[in-house]
């Protein structure tokens, strides 16, 4: 099991908890999704072209 806690750090140094600490089970491989646009930096573009 892994733990995760999501928080925001502000410019003035304060920290706000967005989500409390929780245990999560790791996955073998992340799901393929189009939820976010692919990265367009040159190394990522080369990897995307090579995987086609």
Identify the notable features of this structure and list them briefly.
2 strands; alpha+beta; flat; 1 helix; two-stranded antiparallel ribbon
Percentage beta strand: 25-35%
Largest sheet: 2 strands, antiparallel
What is the SS-derived class? Answer: alpha+beta
Question: How many individual helices?
Answer: 1
**Percent helix:** 10-25%
Q: What this model shows, in words?
A:
This protein is an alpha+beta fold and 52 residues long. The chain is 17% helix and 35% strand. It has one helix spanning 42-50, and strands spanning 2-9, 15-24. Strands 1-2 form a two-stranded antiparallel ribbon. Strand 1 and strand 2 (15-24) form a beta hairpin. It is flat, with a radius of gyration of 17 Å. The N and C termini lie far apart (34 Å).
Provide a brief overview of the structure:
This protein is an alpha+beta fold and 52 residues long. The protein has one helix at residues 42-50; strands at 2-9, 15-24.
What's the topology here?
Layout lengths: L1 E8 L5 E10 L17 H9 L2
Antiparallel strand pairs: 1-2
